[in-house]
Write a structure and sequence with these properties.
Chain lengths: 115, 114
């Protein structure tokens, strides 16, 4: 069935390096994508979003890239810090579904930072 | 600004017991949602309320009921808890029922059913 998935369930990165978290989606009609960060014991926190009419969007230390040709989404975190340790989820919005059912979440990637 | 507040933070129930999970938001958002999160899985939508006075089923509604009490509050009820309902429950809200608005989440209720 349709799903949002992740290439790597866990990612270990040296502090100060850049992190890249990947996400594949299967519905080519999806038109809105969101990245969330979830720290232990907390709810998901919005990081950045991107609409399908864009291929890149930058925030503070984060960049989201969207490649609609291969249905791939990535989150890049520059100069990774210990506070970036968390589970990262991508989510997609599927047109044609009723309102809130549009949004489906991937299973998450855990990012751990090596000192 | 507290955002989305969920109570209780933790709960242990015996099979067959009932309980209500409470959620309130102070952001004047129109839409509210209940998700569950199981280990190694993404969030799955249980029920949502696009606006005050309306509720609709999500992906996994069986065993749950909801009430949109007013614009601020959206509660989730388990009438007869089952071990399969052991999970972390997240409430979320968004300004409007749109596919272009990120969700704002509470910190969750960790429920164990024995």
């Amino acid at each position: 069935g349709e799903s949002v998935g992740l290439h790597l369930p866990t990612l270990s990165v040296q502090e100060g390096d850049n992190s890249i978290i990947n996400c594949a989606y299967s519905n080519s009609a999806s038109d809105y994508f969101i990245w969330y960060k979830q720290e232990s014991g907390k709810g998901p926190q919005f990081i950045i979003d991107i609409r399908s009419n864009m291929d890149k969007r930058q925030g503070q230390r984060v960049t989201v890239l969207l490649n609609k040709t291969v249905k791939h989404l990535s989150l890049q975190i520059a100069a990774t810090q210990p506070g970036d340790s968390a589970v990262y989820f991508c989510a997609e919005s599927r047109p044609g579904y009723s309102s809130a059912s549009k949004i489906i979440f991937g299973s998450g990637t855990r990012l751990s930072i090596r000192p | 600004n507290a955002g989305v507040t969920q109570t209780p933070k933790f709960q242990v129930l015996k099979t067959g017991q009932s309980m209500t999970l409470q959620c309130a938001q102070d952001m004047n958002h129109n839409s509210m949602y209940w998700y569950r999160q199981d280990p190694g899985m993404g969030l799955r939508l249980i029920y949502y309320s696009a606006s005050e006075g309306t509720t609709d089923k999500g992906e996994v509604p069986n065993g749950y009921n909801v009430s949109r009490l007013n614009k601020r509050e959206f509660s989730l009820r388990l009438e007869s808890a089952a071990p399969s309902q052991t999970s972390v429950y997240f409430c979320a809200s968004s300004p409007w029922d749109s596919n272009n608005s990120p969700l704002h989440f509470g910190n969750g209720t960790r429920l164990t059913v024995t």
